[in-house]
Amino acid sequence: MPASPFDFKQSILIVLPTYNELANLEALVRAISQYLVADIVIVDDNSPDGTGELADQLSCRYGHVHVLHRPHKEGLGPAYLAGFTWALHREYSLILEMDCDFSHAPWDLPRLVHRSLTADLVIGSRYVPGGGTENWNARRRFVSRCGNTYVSLFLGSTIHDWTGGFRCYRRELLARMNLATVRAKGYIFQVELAWRAVQLGADVDELPIRFCDRIEGQSKLGWQSIAEALMEVPQMYLLGLGSR
Fold first, then answer.
1. Are 224 and 132 in contact (CB under 8 A)?
2. How far apart are the two ends of the chain, measured CA to CA in Å?
3. Cβ atoms of 59 and 66 closer than 8 Å
4. Cα 204 off chain centre by
5. Positive or negative, the Cα torsion across 192, 20, 73, 95?
6. Is residue 188 part of a domain?
7. Structural domains counted in the chain
8. In which domain, by residue range, is 197 found?
9. 1, part of any domain
10. Which of 74, 189, 235, 242 could form a disulfide with 199 if both were Cys (CB 3.0 to 4.6 A apart)?
11. What is the CATH number of the domain that holds 71?
């Protein structure tokens, strides 16, 4: 752990979507603050376990923590879009996203931001040399590998980890993406935004990370998300999303 958090010149916002993350949220907010000077916006989808109430408490306690409450669960994509839109109405230079379950290591945040000095989009990647996964069962590894291979068949091998959710976007790139037209709602949202970045000619870089399966709470990856991916990826290719 560093003696003090890394403080970059750019203004930074981390978007944290939450749904039933009561067991993880406070610990993650504290951990982020140990490694990086950044604002945080928690986007809660009306979690029945009290995550939203805890988010409000954290916002009152810490001036750099903000909260967006959404009326019901709509999926990962709409939650991130709400956070990104909120960010673009303010003066943040870099907008980061990460999971709220410690799957993405808070100590990797400074590395992610530093890499953004030479890229428009940096993706924390499990599938470049030095990256990998921990505590995944065979089914999870199979689904993830097959998913990325499937995406690459349609969209090319420009990106190795299309579905990775540990990212840093430059403000200018998000502003060019026409977020109001994003179609995907589940985990395939990550693919759509990466594809839009590629179509816009953005500099996309991948940073090797170790992705660790959640310790607390339940995974939200289900067959509905997989089915959405099977249908949406070919449409992205055919429609050329991101070039509009």
1. no
2. 44
3. yes
4. 15
5. negative
6. yes
7. 1
8. 12-239
9. no
10. 242
11. 3.90.550.10
